[in-house]
Amino acid sequence: MAGSVTCPSNPRVPVTVTVSSPTVTASASVNPLCEGSSTILTGGGAVSYIWTGGVTDGVSFAPLATNTYTVTGTDGVGCTATSSITVTVNPLSPTPSPVTATPSVICVGGNSDLNAVSVGNTINWYTVPSGGVAIGTVPSGTNLNVTPAVTTTYYAETQGGAPGGSQTFNYTGSIQTFTVPAGVTSITMEARGAQGGSINVNCVASGGLGARMIGDVAVTPGEVISVLVGQQGFTNGADAGGGGGSFVVRTGNIPLVVAGGGGGASNNIGNCGVNLAGGPGLTTLDGGAEWQWYGQVESTATAVEQILALVAVAVVSSPMV
Questions:
Q1: Cα separation of 77 and 48, whole Å?
Q2: SS3 (DSSP) at 199
Q3: What is the dihedral of CA 98, 103, 104, 109, to 10 degrees?
Q4: CA-CA-CA-CA dihedral for 232, 234, 235, 239, to nearest 10
Q5: C-beta atoms surrounding 192 within 10 Å
Q6: What is the pLDDT of residue 268?
Q7: Per residue, what are the HEC states of 260-308?
Q8: Under 8 Å CB-to-CB from 270, ≥6 apart: which residues?
Q9: Which distant-in-sequence residues (6+ apart) come within 8 Å of 248 by Cβ?
Q10: Could you tell me which of 47, 40, 3 has the C-alpha nearest to residue 22?
Q11: Which of 20-34, 159-173, 174-188, 267-281 shows the lowest mean pLDDT across its residues?
């Protein structure tokens, strides 16, 4: 009796099942920020985003206190992932009190001492209630002498230390950005170039180490700074490439801090162990960038009295000839 044989179809018909796994990111346009200030939360890596805390993606809002917000991102096929960010809200410095002008009535050409008290803080003086440029900055309780030509109202603003912060950027292969927090006007930046590649065929030698550059940079709150971190030089056994440099620039590609990468090791069979490795530098693999900042918190109060410049008095007191 002959046996039966079942023959499979040929060729096989393929079908692919794609697994979608979005990588969702969460960012804030300003963080940390001062009480009463606004920020914008933005999700990335997906198509649509839903935030906790009543926040709308990409829409400005003013958080009342420090809080952690979570965003759920959904990609084009309906898969979801989440990411969180903590937004830090710093309280305003105490309003200066008392605020005085001594004397508060002067003749033309005369002067007066402005004084405001906010213990442990600095006082900025202005001639406008908001914005503008300070006419002087003094420690709390210290006089600022002024000579107004006309009747002028002066405004005292407390400037106190706010919690600082730091951020480290590692190699990603793409440009990363950082938004300067509210109240921050200077950042200590450190950039590190990547190490060059090593070799391990015929000879063994390490790549040169990347440079390390540090500097204090004047910045503006809300300014966006771009960071490109270098990658370690490639290694394929007998040959090696140089390490990538790390660059920190502001809008318009204006360089702030730049650190060069280390050279790749060379392969010279006849001189193994002699001058093959790169020169000294910072011990890094991929490059990096890191900075620290210290913020300032401000509060305003109108000066108690105007300084009156009495033109008429000055005229009448002029001697007759």
A1: 11
A2: strand
A3: -140
A4: -120
A5: 28
A6: 57
A7: CCCCCCCCCHHHCCCCCCCCCCECCCCCEEEEEECCEEEEEEECCCCEE
A8: none
A9: 189, 191, 225, 226, 227, 255, 256, 257, 258, 289
A10: 47
A11: 267-281
The first and second tokens of residue 148, run together, are 């107004």
DSSP for 175-198 reads -EEEEPPTT--EEEEEEEPPPPP-
What confidence category does residue 312 fall into, taking pLDDT thresholds of 50, 70 and 90? very low
User: Number of C-alpha atoms within 13 angstroms, CB side, residue 285?
Assistant: 4
Angstrom distance (rounded) from CA 81 to CA 75:
9
C-alpha span between 48 and 40 (Å, rounded): 16
Rounded Cα distance, 241 and 243, in Å? 7
46-69, pLDDT tens digit by residue?
Answer: 999 999 999 999 999 999 999 999
Selection from 177, 165, 171 nearest residue 44 by Cα = 177
Alpha helices per DSSP H over the chain: 311-316
DSSP structure class, residue 208: P
Q: Is the pLDDT of residue 292 over 70?
A: no
Q: Which one-letter amino acid corresponds to residue 16? A: T
> Greater confidence, 113 or 197?
113
- Identify the residue whose tokens are 């004047």: 218
Average pLDDT over residues 229-254: 81
Residue 318 clears pLDDT 60, i.e. is over it: no
User: Alpha-carbon distance 274 to 241, whole Å?
Assistant: 19
